[in-house]
Amino acid sequence: MATTDEIEARILTLLAQKVKADITVTGSTNIVADTGLDSVSVMDFVLELEDEFDVNIPLDRIAEVKTVADLAASVQDLSRSS
Amino acid sequence: MGIKDRIGAVETTYGRLRALGRDPSRLEFQNVWSPTEATLEGRAMMLFGTNNYLGLTFDPEVLDAGTAATRALGSGTTGSRIANGSYGGHKALESEIARFYAKRHCIVFSTGYVANIGMITALGGKDDVLLIDADSHASIYDGCKMAEAETIRFRHNSPEDLAKKLKRLEGHPGDKIIIVEGIYSMLGDTAPLAEFAAVKREAGDGVYLMVDEAHSLGVLGESGRGQCQAAHVEADCDFVVGTFSKSIGTIGGYCVSNLEGFDWIRSFCRPYMFTASMTPGTVSTARAAFKRMAERPELRARLWSNCAALYRGLSDLGFETGPEVSPVVAVKLPAPEIAVGLWNRLIDEGVYTNIAIPPATPNSLSLLRVSVSAAHTDAQIERAIAIFASVGAELGIIGPGAGANRGERFQVITGGVAATRGAQTRPAPQAQASAAATN
């Protein structure tokens, strides 16, 4: 199974393709406040992550997530429990 | 973020819209005098932004039923059915809807929104999973938020994505409830229900399908039951939810089902238990409208010929429209400012539509939602298309010559109506208008 760091790196690569060129994304990037993505775009991004990591990510888990690092931790947790 | 910050954020957003013209959230009709005509800013307006698909809001029998019940039984019930009792009309409406759908049970709710949050919270218990289409209506999202179940979102109209998500849940002990809509309110597209039903069947026991037919009741299916009927999968649709606020022309909602023991849901469904029941007037209005809908199938035929005329008319002009002919014709626009500009200019010229911009729209689309009614006349549709042509060209959204041979093509669709007749707008009955405004 991928480590949290590996998951985070993969998320950052995918997220960088979603945001404007002048925005740099890191593990501490707040996914809603710092990326310019609206709430629906974030949910759509999660659809891509579900395919990427072959995991279901429930909406209440997304609501708890603030940063990219949080999201990576959630993905790893959900992969482990499924 | 406190309340003052939230108000500030909304003020900024709407302030930007207001700077471009009108604020869509604050429009006020001084009078509405037919399913398709109203007074706005003191001028007559053709309504292409309602959900009045069958045009029943002014049907004389519907109006008589509503007013007679109000006079006989009073203006409201002043309480919930659980605490304060049902009226005969509530029970009669439920049996009539159950009979209409050929289902065993029906529960009526005070609004369509409440029907969705009520059913979703009742179905989605602690260890269950709700699987919802990504483009679901806000009432579905809100129901999911309130429910104790987990919610998983699948790609819009994608049975494949749903199947993938159900596969990941194999061995999960709780119920899985799939939720889709018959017609989606923003783009007017229909759900591939036969495919969704197949995915549900494949997934086995404990998997249920709930279909929200809010925009498809009276619109789709041989007898107007909606997309479940049109796709011939009614037996697979375990819960059909709908509203009285669109084709039925009043307010309220319902769910029908064959689930054994369904009636007990009334005793643990909080959105059913803790809100006032439908008024005698709205109950009788809904009953009469269901009756009229069944008696007048020609309204559905008329609606669809109007849909085809408007959809083709706007597509032929060069507007980018939604994926299929539908009572909701979405006009996709490249940016929110362009959508706002077009929406404002259409109102200037007497055509009222709905504006939808992100994040209220799927895929960050900016669009005008143009809705069709069986009550629209050929003349109104032709006039609306002509106004779209001139305003669209003026704003550079379509080419200047886009509508050049439009009249000729349009005649084929509608059978032809003289443009001069179409240009005439019926004057607003002013006495009525001021009476309505002060009531």
Largest contact between chains: A-B, 18 and 20 residues
Give the count of helical stretches of chain B. Answer: 17
Strand proportion of chain B, as a percent range, falls in: 15-25%
Stretches with pLDDT under 50, minimum 5 residues of chain A: none
The rough form of chain A would be described as: globular
| Radius of gyration computed on alpha carbons of chain B | 22 Å
Structural class of chain B: alpha/beta
Describe this structure in words.
The complex is a heterodimer of chains A (82) and B (439). With 82 residues, chain A is mostly helical. Helix content of chain A is 59%, strand content 0%. Chain A has four helices and no strands. In chain A, helix 1 (4-16) packs across helix 4 (68-81). The radius of gyration of chain B is 22 Å and the shape is globular. In chain B, the strands form three sheets. Chain B has a seven-stranded mixed β-sheet, with helices on both faces. In chain B, strands 1-2-3-13 form a four-stranded mixed β-sheet. A four-stranded antiparallel β-sheet of chain B has the order 11-12-15-14. The model of chain B is unreliable at 405-439 (pLDDT under 50). In chain B, a hairpin with a 2-residue loop joins strand 1 and strand 2 (37-40). Chain B is an alpha/beta fold and 439 residues long. Chain B has helices at 3-19, 60-73, 81-84, 88-101, 112-123, 138-146, 159-168, 193-203, 227-230, 270-273, 280-295, 298-317, 336-348, 378-394, 406-414, 419-423, 430-438, and strands at residues 29-34, 37-40, 43-47, 105-109, 129-133, 150-154, 176-181, 207-212, 239-243, 253-257, 320-321, 328-333, 351-352, 354-356, 366-371. Chains A and B meet through helix 2 of A and strand 6 and helix 7 of B.
